[in-house]
Amino acid sequence: MLSVICRSALPKYGRSWLSAQVAVRTMSSSEGPSPPFTTLAVSRPAEAVTHVQLHRPKKLNAMNKAFWREMVECFNEISEDQDCRVVVVSGAGKMFTAGIDLMDMAGDMLQPEGDDAARVAWNVRKLVAKYQETFSVIEKCPKPVLVAVHGACIGGGVDLITACDIRLCTQDAWFQVKEVDIGLAADVGTLQRLPKVIGSRSLVNELALTARKMYADEAKSSGLVSRVFPDKDAMMAGALEMAGEIAARSPVAVQGTKLNLIYSRDHSVAEGLDYMATWNMSMLQTQDVMKSAQAVMEKKSLKETLFSKL
Amino acid sequence: MLSVICRSALPKYGRSWLSAQVAVRTMSSSEGPSPPFTTLAVSRPAEAVTHVQLHRPKKLNAMNKAFWREMVECFNEISEDQDCRVVVVSGAGKMFTAGIDLMDMAGDMLQPEGDDAARVAWNVRKLVAKYQETFSVIEKCPKPVLVAVHGACIGGGVDLITACDIRLCTQDAWFQVKEVDIGLAADVGTLQRLPKVIGSRSLVNELALTARKMYADEAKSSGLVSRVFPDKDAMMAGALEMAGEIAARSPVAVQGTKLNLIYSRDHSVAEGLDYMATWNMSMLQTQDVMKSAQAVMEKKSLKETLFSKL
Amino acid sequence: MLSVICRSALPKYGRSWLSAQVAVRTMSSSEGPSPPFTTLAVSRPAEAVTHVQLHRPKKLNAMNKAFWREMVECFNEISEDQDCRVVVVSGAGKMFTAGIDLMDMAGDMLQPEGDDAARVAWNVRKLVAKYQETFSVIEKCPKPVLVAVHGACIGGGVDLITACDIRLCTQDAWFQVKEVDIGLAADVGTLQRLPKVIGSRSLVNELALTARKMYADEAKSSGLVSRVFPDKDAMMAGALEMAGEIAARSPVAVQGTKLNLIYSRDHSVAEGLDYMATWNMSMLQTQDVMKSAQAVMEKKSLKETLFSKL
Amino acid sequence: MLSVICRSALPKYGRSWLSAQVAVRTMSSSEGPSPPFTTLAVSRPAEAVTHVQLHRPKKLNAMNKAFWREMVECFNEISEDQDCRVVVVSGAGKMFTAGIDLMDMAGDMLQPEGDDAARVAWNVRKLVAKYQETFSVIEKCPKPVLVAVHGACIGGGVDLITACDIRLCTQDAWFQVKEVDIGLAADVGTLQRLPKVIGSRSLVNELALTARKMYADEAKSSGLVSRVFPDKDAMMAGALEMAGEIAARSPVAVQGTKLNLIYSRDHSVAEGLDYMATWNMSMLQTQDVMKSAQAVMEKKSLKETLFSKL
Amino acid sequence: MLSVICRSALPKYGRSWLSAQVAVRTMSSSEGPSPPFTTLAVSRPAEAVTHVQLHRPKKLNAMNKAFWREMVECFNEISEDQDCRVVVVSGAGKMFTAGIDLMDMAGDMLQPEGDDAARVAWNVRKLVAKYQETFSVIEKCPKPVLVAVHGACIGGGVDLITACDIRLCTQDAWFQVKEVDIGLAADVGTLQRLPKVIGSRSLVNELALTARKMYADEAKSSGLVSRVFPDKDAMMAGALEMAGEIAARSPVAVQGTKLNLIYSRDHSVAEGLDYMATWNMSMLQTQDVMKSAQAVMEKKSLKETLFSKL
Amino acid sequence: MLSVICRSALPKYGRSWLSAQVAVRTMSSSEGPSPPFTTLAVSRPAEAVTHVQLHRPKKLNAMNKAFWREMVECFNEISEDQDCRVVVVSGAGKMFTAGIDLMDMAGDMLQPEGDDAARVAWNVRKLVAKYQETFSVIEKCPKPVLVAVHGACIGGGVDLITACDIRLCTQDAWFQVKEVDIGLAADVGTLQRLPKVIGSRSLVNELALTARKMYADEAKSSGLVSRVFPDKDAMMAGALEMAGEIAARSPVAVQGTKLNLIYSRDHSVAEGLDYMATWNMSMLQTQDVMKSAQAVMEKKSLKETLFSKL
């Protein structure tokens, strides 16, 4: 299904690697990460769909220092890229990610600097806040982010996927909130987002306090993922199809939906309704309503409807 | 099980259609909506149980302009009606509802008035707020509201049912968050309430961003509905039985329970406990506690216990 | 599996009954509650694990006046006990608990004092607040609390278990939110915590408004419990094993995890992340990170790692 | 300064009494309240300015049952009246208001109905909520409300003025939080709004707990009022002038300012900024910015600038 | 004005020192603190008025370890004491208080225990939370607390007075937020309450960041205190008179007022109104409304009205 | 008092202009802004004190496009600059600032781009959010920021100063919330922060709705500024002295104080206390407490105490 056109065919990178006018139809990049990135491979497998791959397969996509910085740059660009309407995140190689790269990060984590405990603390706080931002950018990105997990998703991987909007996995996937095993309370998102992502608090607590593995079936029945696929190929095809469905719809509607769903999570229903009404003061003044309504009445596919960029 | 006594047997309507002293035992109204309503048929199928039917079967119960206004009037009256202790909502005809009546509503939605974009926005906001109120009245009504869904429940239908307290459906029911298909972020409750109604955030996002259908089995496993019945007759019988169980209990206990469950949804546990204690300052001073306790000790059914009206 | 060493072998009680230096390896106490308690039997079945048994088996562990007070004392001591890292709660005899002991409590509940309705209300509020504290102490205790339910868990029992961190049950267990049957809105935690503990709001409302029983399978599929065991022996063995896993990990990591999971429940994601970063300013300065990381690298079990007391 | 044209010259009342096209230039209505009102006299003393007078001078503008209902009707109409951009509230006769009309209200307040204390409580809550709404409508009205106080402002009068946006008074004015004198905690706004209206918490508490009078000078220095005038004529002239200044400005800017100031009071700065940005998505798309900017550059008065109605 | 009857005339202490039936008419206690307290002298200078004196005059009422514990015990007892309706706090000797007793507290503050920085932190948090409680009990006490300050009020003294309801001072009083001078951010209430107690944020920040002294005049104009008296005798007479005014009013009204004023501080206006209505469901059912209304109509002093105890 | 050493003596700029090791003792920069800035002049008039001058005197320090960007860069650098402990902001030339530079900004504000009203709105929101950040960086900067205002402070100037911690002004200063005059609701901070900065809500509303000028005396009595100086020289000397006082104190204490004061503003007292205790878990482990306590006991000035950098 996916015709592979090598990512390096893109004419230029840096500031504009995402806004390439030629649609790059690939879900995988065989040679390695996309410059200027060293840990991420970014491609455009279908129109308006951006694919971000964790791409250190020999290191099991472990999250090293570069990764934390590159994710922020990557998603900041995606947020601005008018040619992208939806994002798919996956992992290259044998698994989604082995989590934090302890060897690479040890200096930061185990030997924070400072003249006394308070000054060490001050630096620790800045560091943690910076790492939190790495996954919060996914949430702040107005385009929906699908994540497709195969094999292991450990530690920082769980922090990452809970910040995404839609979670898919393969039958062989497993998830592990690992932090308690290395003497930490998970501090870059899992403890904050996991309880708002799945419905069983007893399960959340068990996972976070015992660091036990959770396999695909329990991930599905508990609601962590909304679909399980037999293998990675099927999952990537499914993810791309779902991404295509989203990309075909009005970006005004889609991005407003994501943003208000996140707002609702953190507010009362009454606050959410008020914000929604204020949001739609302008957003209902879009041509997209008329275009979409017309497509519905004419029973045409939305994929044939042309919406302005956003 | 349900002896059908035509709704029109009610002696008078308007202000007092709900407080009829004769118990009207019907779950369906064959001839049409209950004046002064044109889109709703209201009846009393069992003591203390009010049945509100969406009743434009030829139009698939599509929500037209009249509907939005009538729901508010209807539930405001129910809130005041001391003879009603529980409400059942269902749809007449082939399905629960096809959602918004685009033809009837198009003027409001597609051509809002105003001299400039800000003034159009001002009018849009008032309109959206008014429509939001249509479903918020269900939540504000202190009596529990059960909703029984058969066939399709589309768009505005999902907004409606998420504002109800208990959701039941038939095996052939399906649900669709439709708004994104017509260029809108759902703004009358779905985006605010659905994530607080079911436990899988990935599923909520998928439904809202792709507008895909969800069938009864997934609705049950995800927790959107708490019971699935083989067909509509079985469901209505089940709904009436459950309504009867609730109606038999102390209205002080039942309505206090609904109100505090909603309060808890929007507050921290500590805030919820404080409000509950303040609420029960007066509510524990009811005779109903003594009456109920006595029934328990004498192993009598609560259906034989007479509670004062509330 | 559990060698029974009688609780009375403990050298002294009162202030120090929990910090006994000899490890008491028992999950049950045959003779009765642990003085000074009359409703609770407290033991140490494994290192760093405290077992709290509801222990009025002849009265089906019904919650009498003494119980409400003793729970507070018991968990306050556990909170301070540096030798305890995790708690297991269970019920002695035929069932977990029949709930409130109506006979014993009737005076308080049915005949509150006061010269007028306002003064009665004032006393009611103090009483309710005091009872709420009985279960809130479980939540305030920084050590994780597992609860293992067999047979019936009725009324106050549901209030109790929703305040625990991890819920397990036997195949024959059932749960009942009973309060509405005796004319009350549940006011010591169920209405506040149950909706944040399981993902289906429709189910929560149904349980609270109809007082119907929920059996083990539905408790599992709805997420109320995260594991179901065939019988009580298997469950207690499973609970002890899980408790052992938690007790083996860094108490700085474990208790910080519990505390931040509870904080997150009641705050937005952004607030939760900020608090977490502030919390870890000091907590990441623990030796436990180094010790744990070393164990991971040396592939040693954490059970062989010695962490300082907390 | 104020040419008195009798309010009765208005061609018709009811639905349209506010939208009279002829500007009614009067600040006082000598004959009595404006039908259909019995306690309020409504007039249009200047273009786009609505004057609402508490008008039961023989009863010292005491708040009787009719008053609580009429205020809601009056401000609901004002909210919809596109010819009104600002409101001035004052009292007819010797003083602003003596507060609640104990004689007229005694039935409601002293003998609430209900079969037991819980059912009485239920009715009390509905009553209090209804009375709270009487002053909350002032806050919900998007047009700024100035209140001009002369003589006494007692009890319910303080609840009323704290819901207004700008407070002015005469040198002989005094204010009294009276409720504690009749055995009540003030429940229709004073305890909620007064602490957010003036800066000294010690003073707020003193006033509310002792019911002592506060005179104009302390009202000014504490910030309750922002201006003091020597007498009522000067105050009404000043109020009309200030109202004229506000009425001359863009209604999009003015009403957005009021609404966001109230939003900010009840939210964190970050929440307020987010809401403001969302609000201005549409509101900055008004022609009024261009018109206003042009007037500024041409150094013309805004009174000569014609803004579309809102 | 104040007839001095020595506090030691009270028949018994301990559990019942507050509920003495003979009215103790004294504002000062010449010999020293009231057993079992070593830092506080408690007396009853007028009916229903409790006077709590900081009483280590030779140590300038510096806050030593005993003080932090005794304040909690003292206010817990006052909260339960039905004979007390209002509290006055003042300082014995030359000044109100010199703040924390650095010598006595140094061990706790400068040498917290723990095997690593995280475990030290754990103990620090418990300590700070315990000290915070010392002043929070004033706020939790439902009876209004007036504080009368003469001379210096330094460091912990400011934490204390901001937790009181009404602040009075002498002309020679001065206030100093001292913590920044000893390397601390004030953590037992000043930084949390001072900004909600006075209206000028610039002043709050200046005081907290520079530790400069603020004298009586600025304390009055900024709203920290609501009254300034020429000397201590005049202030104590004024405080007693104000306390008498409060004590004469319905305790249902007075304590409900305090509680709702504090609730309002921490909630939006809408939340505050909702809580108030729920609170008054029961509280308006008091006889005190009728008794108070009757006194008003008969123009009798409330001091002659007998209200039941609360 | 201020020896003028020209800012250009600093060896290098850009990344390191702030961390110059030679103390630059100047409060004014005669030649113009500090490269790379074109609208700001940055200097170090005393040890650990950074002076940021709005520096477009010929344009009355009007805020042009460059200004909005440079403020963010400038304060981001200051946040990281360990040699800076306190900041003073002032305006060069005749006045503090004339506010927004309408000519330079007109394109952005009056002609936002987009294919329909929704897409214009999307761009407007990003723009407003970016401008909000310009002043929020002042608040996020952990070092206290004093602002010294002379002459006019108009429009955006008020947004700026309300984000500062301490406000000072000259006798000839005046303030004007100008936005309503150009058809806008002030959206970069004034409506959100002004009501939390001064105590009189009536005054806030009057200023924001009428755009009238407020002079120094009212600014002082209302609490907007905490000190008024006769002229600019006196004010700058006073500002520098106050900055020196703050710079001499422990940076751990000072910056923790600022951060917690801001946290408290946006949270309940209970939340603020909890955060404070968590913050001080690490911060009380600083050497600065011991150093400061020692200085106090030895009655030495803190200016002689050497604290480690933060």
UniProtKB/TrEMBL annotation, chains A, B, C, D, E, F:
Keywords, comma-separated and alphabetical: Acetylation, Fatty acid metabolism, Isomerase, Lipid metabolism, Peroxisome
GO cellular component entries: mitochondrion; peroxisome
GO-annotated molecular function: delta(3,5)-delta(2,4)-dienoyl-CoA isomerase activity
Predominant localisation class: other
Record keyword Acetylation present: yes
Catalyzed reactions per annotation: (3E,5Z,8Z,11Z,14Z)-eicosapentaenoyl-CoA = (2E,4E,8Z,11Z,14Z)-eicosapentaenoyl-CoA; (3E,5Z)-octadienoyl-CoA = (2E,4E)-octadienoyl-CoA
Localisation per UniProt entry: Peroxisome
Listed transmembrane segments: none
Pathway(s) of this molecule: Lipid metabolism; fatty acid beta-oxidation
Function: Isomerization of 3-trans,5-cis-dienoyl-CoA to 2-trans,4-trans-dienoyl-CoA.
Family membership: Belongs to the enoyl-CoA hydratase/isomerase family.
PANTHER family, alphabetized: DELTA(3,5)-DELTA(2,4)-DIENOYL-COA ISOMERASE, MITOCHONDRIAL, ENOYL-COA HYDRATASE
Name of protein: Delta(3,5)-Delta(2,4)-dienoyl-CoA isomerase, mitochondrial
Organism: Cyprinodon variegatus
